[in-house]
Amino acid sequence: MRCVVRQYLDDMGETPPDNLHSLIMGESERALVQTVLEHTDGNQSRAAEILGITRTTLRNRIRRYGLE
Predict the structure, then answer these.
(1) Integer Cα distance of 10 and 42 in angstroms
(2) What is the pLDDT of residues 18-61, one digit of tens each?
(3) CA distance 28 to 42
(4) Taking a C-beta distance cutoff of 8 angstroms, is the pair 47, 58 a contact?
(5) 65 near 33, Cβ under 8 Å?
(6) Which of 29, 30, 31, 46 has the fewest Cβ atoms within 10 angstroms?
């Protein structure tokens, strides 16, 4: 991950990055949720437990990232 961020910043050159934190967190959270859902064969209760979030929060993330 560190190499990816460094490459992104290098590619930006002198242009200041906007919302880098939101960009990185959104992409990593999407991948995390998707991977855990695949691991649990779509069992949202189990996935929420593994992620340490409520099922409601998980369902919100699934909708947010279009993982339905």
Answers:
(1) 38
(2) 888 888 888 899 999 999 999 999 999 999 999 999 999 999 99
(3) 19
(4) yes
(5) yes
(6) 31
Among 28, 12, 23, 34, residue whose Cα is nearest residue 44: 34
Residue 15 has pLDDT above 80, yes or no: yes
Residue whose token pair is 């991948």: 31
Single-letter code of the amino acid located at 47 = A
Angle at 57 between CA 52 and CA 63, to 5 degrees: 130
Q: Which one-letter amino acid corresponds to residue 61?
A: R
Backbone angles phi, psi at 44, to 5 degrees: -70, -35
